[in-house]
Amino acid sequence: MRVIIAAGGTGGHIYPALAVAKKIRQKDKASDILYIGTTKRMEKDIVPKEGFKYAAVNVEGLKRSLSPKNIKSAFLFLAAISKCKKIIKKFKPDVVVTFGGYVSAPVIYAAHKLGVKCCIHEQNSIFGMTNKFASKYADKIFVSFKSLEEKINDKKVIYTGNPCSEDAYLAKEANKKDYGLTDGKKLVLIVMGSLGSKTVSDKMKKMLTLFNNKDYEVLYVTGKNYFDEFKKMKYTNNIKIVSYINNLVSLLKKTDCLVSRAGASTLSEISSLNVPSILIPSPYVTENHQYKNAMDLACKNAALILEEKNLEGDELLRLVEKVLNDRIFTKKLKENLKSFEVRGSASRIYDEIVKLAGDKDARHS
User: In order of start, what are the domains of the chain with their CATH numbers?
Assistant: First the structure.
């Protein structure tokens, strides 16, 4: 089977795409996979290291407000379509699968025009701008949230979950001692993404002192941009500070309470691993989609939500200690979280891709 995969811009698009690419490679040793990404974003470095063929396209996203930059973006988009058509004609894929990020738009449009079957995956609980566009040309639409499947109500839509959840389930447990943590103590893990958040970091400098001398441990991942500021701070021994954790999902398996943003991949991982969580959605993302992701869980009592604007005083401490100490509440939280768990998400997507690739009569005219 010959497959083109496209995704770009952020890890939230790239890692689900890679999870499916790896699943194809695992299940079909004779498969040939080409990944199309941008010339400038992080996928250009990540994907080749995973051993996949990589083709780069120069494309930029449109600004939501009126901007002269949109003229340049429009010209780049048209040029990208032309280049994608050449790549597709040369590679001759059986199917094209896109995972969002603006590079996906010219890829799926070109594939559709050339009569190649296409499918898309949406990680969030609402469509991103690119996937709104791409959904018009997709033969199948894979979604991570049941609520989005119900909202669209189209036979093309298939609830698969996020393929990152399968990687999370199979990940090896971390050794807490590697992080200076104690096996016999409960762990609160606080992380706001690989780079961190300035707003949250500024608040956490003082807020972390509220956790001093507790009988549980707190590991705060500052993000690479803010670690130096925290090195100057004085906290008690139960509070550990690191800049970054390379294999976070392994440590999630040892976590009793996670405090995190509400990115789609994170939510798929906590659902897969059944981790009680306090979600602080980033208010700076497109269409406030992290808040909508978080509310999908919070409305079913599967996670707690604390908006960044309400991250004041001892509110975080009170929520953390409710999760750690109220056994009945936390048991219910974990039971409700199971309803969001999708086992074998990458395998489900692989099976659907195989069916689509083999359905010769379904090709576009």
Answer: 2-162+343-362 (3.40.50.2000), 169-340 (3.40.50.2000)
